[in-house]
């Protein structure tokens, strides 16, 4: 199973629907059926999907549409498979560097805040 290369930190539900080739209402329904699929919520309730959420949605689609699992069967399969065992997405090196730099900046800001 191959996953698309995702370059952003967050995606809207419309972007995820396009990536997964699904309708938005299907993604919202899956959130109610699969406790593992929990995108972040922005103020106002807008969903923000991380690359791992998209990977999980694609895996759920694979189980339901290609492997022909029932919802219950897919839930059981996901419960048995830890999220870390779902194949990893490739993150471009530049993005990984950017994430590390942001972590370092956040750490420095916390240190400065503690001094104040």
The CA-CA distance between the termini, in Å, is 50 Å
Structural class: mainly alpha
Globular, elongated, flat, extended or rod-shaped: what is the shape? elongated
Across the major sheet, the strand order is 1-2
- Specify the biggest β-sheet: 2 strands, antiparallel
Radius of gyration, rounded? Answer: 17 Å
| Highest CATH level, the class of the domain at 13-90 | Mainly Alpha
Q: Using the coordinates shown, work out and report the CATH topology of the domain at 13-90.
A: Multidrug-efflux Transporter Regulator, Chain: A, Domain 2
**Strand residue content:** under 5%
Following the backbone from N to C, one meets helices and strands in this order, namely HHEEHHH
List keywords for this structure.
5 helices; mainly alpha; Multidrug-efflux Transporter Regulator, Chain: A, Domain 2; 116 residues; single chain; two-stranded antiparallel ribbon; elongated
